[in-house]
């Protein structure tokens, strides 16, 4: 009996070692192969589900709408120039309003917010958000959550916090375990973007605002948006974003031109197109007295992916063959003031050449050949974690 028990323990240890080795091997796989690996058999699926080793670093995927016939979520793999269709029922009929650490945030018509890791299908149901309780009874309230991010990966820390930009360009946060959302006090101004940076959330004003705010969520109900003194020269009528790069805070200002997008599926409802014409980037050093800043001419050969997500920095040298352009900003932007139309401004800004290019045609979202829902889409970058 004792020998049989020892033999069984050896078999279990060998089995675990094999699974550990398989898990290690998956760290060299790109994301599509990583998840094909998990479809081979039950044991290999366990390796992927436990995620002791994530996939190799690669370019983020673009999250689009749902396939109208299968209800699968549509992703665009930039490196392969290819669409992928994934069954994520947790996000069915949800507007995807952001991503962080490989998780997606979705909000439904009742303002219920869900946080989903799309490959393992782990999820959290967050409390309903009541920026304006009256809109919950209005079937046409248009899903008043514009962006959502997290400060940490829930797979690594249970004490994570989610921050959203929502109704009337206000912000709210929810700490894991809280029964409700907290709306920090702000005396004036509207918010366009938020980022988690050095232990605190920072926010930047909407279009005509020249303010940058900080909020300490550790203060709970006493939290408030505090305006910072800064030296960033704010350009008029620009959409502003924040990102962290090499320990400093980047302030991006996106200048737009107004026009009309072509090729819409519904010509009776043309989508106003505010195409990007220029992007100006400043580095703001909050540690120095006077919070000094300077214009950023390059990204030290990195690429920045920014939009309706936590900003992602990629070193193109670590993803050879992907076609990623160094010192470039890959942006996806749909101004919220045109309604939940579609992501009609998707491009690359080469900071050195000061040149704009496309990586994904907005006409693809309107094409009659497209089977996925083009309404209610703010294309969002999803980075593997």
TrEMBL record:
Organism domain of life: Eukaryota
Pfam families xrefs: Beta-prop_KIB1-4
Annotated KIB1-4 beta-propeller domain residues: 75-350
Protein name in the entry: F-box family protein
Provenance organism: Rhynchospora pubera
């Amino acid at each position: 009996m004792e020998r049989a028990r020892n033999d069984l323990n050896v078999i279990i240890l060998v089995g675990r070692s094999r699974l550990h080795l398989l898990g290690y091997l998956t760290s060299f796989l790109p994301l599509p192969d990583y998840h094909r690996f998990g479809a081979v058999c039950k044991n290999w699926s366990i390796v992927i589900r436990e995620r002791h080793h994530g996939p190799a670093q690669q370019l983020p995927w673009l999250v689009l709408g749902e396939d109208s016939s299968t209800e699968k979520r549509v992703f665009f793999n930039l490196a392969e120039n290819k669409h992928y269709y994934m069954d994520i029922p947790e996000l069915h009929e949800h507007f995807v309003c952001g991503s962080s650490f490989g998780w997606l945030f979705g909000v439904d018509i009742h303002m219920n917010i869900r946080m989903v890791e799309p490959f393992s299908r782990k999820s959290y149901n967050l409390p309903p958000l009541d920026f304006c309780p009256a809109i919950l009874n209005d079937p046409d309230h248009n899903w008043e959550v514009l962006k959502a991010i997290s400060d940490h990966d829930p797979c690594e820390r249970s004490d994570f916090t989610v921050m959203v930009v929502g109704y009337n360009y206000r912000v709210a946060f929810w700490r894991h375990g809280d029964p409700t959302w907290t709306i920090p006090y702000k005396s004036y101004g509207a918010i366009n973007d938020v980022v988690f940076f050095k232990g605190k959330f920072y926010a930047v004003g909407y279009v005509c605002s020249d303010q940058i705010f900080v909020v300490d969520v550790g203060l709970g109900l006493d939290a408030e948006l505090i305006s910072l003194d800064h030296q960033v020269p704010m350009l008029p009528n620009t959409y502003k974003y924040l990102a962290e790069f090499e320990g400093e805070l980047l302030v991006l200002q996106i200048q737009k031109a107004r026009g009309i997008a072509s090729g819409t599926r519904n010509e009776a409802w043309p989508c106003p197109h505010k195409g990007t014409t220029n992007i100006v980037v400043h580095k703001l050093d909050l540690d120095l007295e006077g919070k000094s800043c300077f214009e950023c001419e390059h990204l030290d050969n990195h690429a920045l992916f920014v939009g309706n997500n936590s900003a992602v920095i990629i070193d193109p040298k670590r993803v050879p063959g992907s076609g990623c352009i160094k010192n470039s900003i890959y942006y996806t932007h749909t101004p919220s003031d045109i309604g939940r139309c579609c992501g009609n401004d998707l491009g690359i800004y080469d900071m050195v050449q000061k040149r704009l290019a496309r990586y994904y045609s907005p006409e693809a979202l309107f094409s009659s050949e497209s089977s996925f829902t083009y309404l209610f889409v703010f294309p969002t970058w999803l980075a593997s974690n």
